[in-house]
């Protein structure tokens, strides 16, 4: 029986069948090896490509971090300059507000939110320093002719409306300042709330320009208007400097917040790319081990 089995196994047809099966196994192994080698090659190319992208993103993130540090130094210098010139940091710590918003959401810098913050700071200066300077002006001993609208009818000044096209007085200016936080003129269209100190100064100077236009020198009103302009000048300069300091400080803080936001976005992109690189590296390592096993 064993002899018969050996004869059967050594028969030409059986041997040919075995050789064919063996050849098929070798060819199948070669196909798998070639396919796996192709996979390894593609993964190696992807690994190199994403590695280069990761390196570029790493450099970009480092550059963003350096710009953020530079912006922070400029912000601190702006605060020191503001303090050195007699200014104060804006109440409420605007940089703290911006930094807190960024740390909570890590979102791109909100331009609209900063514009709203800037407008609030402008109004704070207008309500505090601006109103104080205006009250000092209105309390001047020669300010009484300018503290209320000109009653050209009661005073018999028939030509006043023809000469003075845009009437203005310090009382109206004060009401504009006091209403500036409301955001509208209410029911009286003669009051136009201000948004900054430049508008306050423009109407103060318009008041005196109108007075000098209608009352030529050397009339008393002309002389009084000139004297009040001189009284107002240093107060406006201090107010302008204060407003400028706050704007510069806010601009530096805005830049700082923007740079911090850009650094956050750069670090996020880098982290995502590093995760992709790690996944590709793991797939490449597994494919290489399988390829080694097929050798």
Summarize the structure.
Helix content is 77%, strand content 0%. It is mostly helical. It is rod-shaped.
Description:
The protein is mainly alpha-helical and 295 residues long. The protein is 77% helix and 0% strand. The chain is built from eight helices and no strands. The two termini are 40 Å apart.
Q: Topology, please?
A:
Blueprint: H1 2-9, H2 12-84, H3 94-105, H4 111-138, H5 160-163, H6 170-178, H7 197-214, H8 220-294
SSE arrangement, N to C: HHHHHHHH
What oligomeric arrangement do these chains adopt?
single chain
How many strands?
0
Taking pLDDT < 50 over at least 5 consecutive residues as the criterion, the unreliable ranges are 86-106, 182-187
Task: Provide the gyration radius in Å.
Answer: 40 Å
- Number of helices in the DSSP assignment: 8
Overall 3D shape:
rod-shaped
Distance separating the two termini:
40 Å
**Percentage of residues in helical conformation:** over 70%
Largest sheet: none
* Helix and strand composition category: mainly alpha
What proportion strand?
A: under 5%
Mean pLDDT: 84
Task: State the main characteristics.
77% helix; mainly alpha; 8 helices; single chain; 295 residues
């Amino acid at each position: 029986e064993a002899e018969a089995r050996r004869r059967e196994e050594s028969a030409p047809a059986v041997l040919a069948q075995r050789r064919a099966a063996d050849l098929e196994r070798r060819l199948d192994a070669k196909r798998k090896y070639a396919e796996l080698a192709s996979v390894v090659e593609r993964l190696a190319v992807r690994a190199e490509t994403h590695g280069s992208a990761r390196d570029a993103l790493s450099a970009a993130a480092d550059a963003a971090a350096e710009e953020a540090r530079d912006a922070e130094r400029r912000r601190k210098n702006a605060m020191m300059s503001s303090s050195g010139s007699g200014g104060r940091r804006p109440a409420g710590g605007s940089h703290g507000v911006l930094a807190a918003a960024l740390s909570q959401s890590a979102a791109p810098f909100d331009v609209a939110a900063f514009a709203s913050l800037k407008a609030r700071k402008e109004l704070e200066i207008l309500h505090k320093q601006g109103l104080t300077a205006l009250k000092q002006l209105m309390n001047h001993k020669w300010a009484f002719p300018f503290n209320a609208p000109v009653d050209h009818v009661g005073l018999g000044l028939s030509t006043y409306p023809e000469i003075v096209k845009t009437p203005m007085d310090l009382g109206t200016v004060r009401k504009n300042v006091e209403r500036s936080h409301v955001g509208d003129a209410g029911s009286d269209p003669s009051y136009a709330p201000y948004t900054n100190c430049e508008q306050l100064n423009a109407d103060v100077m318009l008041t005196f320009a109108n007075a000098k236009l209608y009352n030529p020198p050397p009339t008393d009103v002309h002389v009084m208007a000139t004297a009040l302009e001189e009284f107002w000048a240093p107060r406006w300069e201090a107010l302008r400097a204060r407003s400028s300091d706050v704007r510069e400080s806010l601009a530096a803080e805005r830049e700082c917040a923007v740079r911090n936001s850009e650094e956050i976005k750069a670090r996020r992109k880098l982290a995502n790319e590093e995760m992709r690189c790690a996944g590709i590296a793991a797939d490449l390592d597994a494919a290489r081990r399988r390829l080694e096993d097929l050798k």
